[in-house]
Amino acid sequence: MTDDRQSAPAALRNRDPILDVLRTVLPDRGTALEIASGSGEHVVHFARHLPKLRFQPSDPSDAALRSIAAWISAEGLDNIDPPLQLDAAMDSWPVKTADAVICINMIHISPWSSTEGLMRGAAAILRPGAPLYLYGPYRRSGVPTAPSNEAFDQSLRGRDPAWGLRTLEDVADLAAANGFSSPEVVTMPANNLSVIFRKM
Ligand SMILES: C[S@@+](CC[C@H](N)C(=O)[O-])C[C@H]1O[C@@H](n2cnc3c(N)ncnc32)[C@H](O)[C@@H]1O
Fold first, then answer.
1. Measured in angstroms, how far is the CA atom of residue 98 from the centroid of ligand 1?
2. pTM listed for this prediction
C-alpha cells in the first residue's frame, strides 16, 4: 500500500498556535475553505479540534492533493471534504460560498498574482463579516525585519525571483481594494503573524 502523506516539520510546530487563533476567528458552524493546504496536516488538525465546522481543503499541486486525501483517509474524519484543485489566481474558483477562508504560508511562496487572486476569490465567496485568515512572515513598514526573516526572504528569492516576504501594508491595501476591513494582527511564534481580514 502506498502512503502519499507528506509531513512538514514547520506545520507540526505551528499548528497549535494557529489553532488557538482560529478558535477565536472562525464561526462555530459552516464551511471553512483552506487555500494552499499543502501536505494537509493543518486541515486535519483543525478539523479534529473544531468538529462542528466543515473544512474544504484545496491546492493546485497534484502531489499536495494526494497528500491531503491520504491524511483525510488516515485520520477518518467526517468533517473534511475531498481536496479541490484550486489555484488562487484562477478567474473563477470551484467553490461558490464559504463561511471563512484560511490561507497559511502561501503569499510569500508564490507570485503576487496569487495574493491578488486570493483577495479577489475570497471576496467573491464570503458574506459580510466573514473572516479571511492569513498566516506567515511579513515585512512591516517602519519595523525592522527579523534577521531570520531577512534570510528566509533571500532564500525564497533565490528559488524564484517572484517569491519573497510581502509587506503587510501592501497586503492590507490589496485587501481593502477588494472590500475587506483593515486587518487584526496577532503576533505568532518564530516572527510570524496571523492576519485577519473581514469582508465588509
Ligand atoms: C509552503 S506551502 C504551505 C502549505 C501549508 N499551507 C503549510 O503551511 O504547511 C505553499 C503551498 O502553496 C501552494 N500554492 C502556490 N501557489 C498557489 C496558488 N496560486 N494558489 C493556491 N495555492 C498555491 C503550493 O502548492 C503549496 O502547497
1. 19
2. 0.98
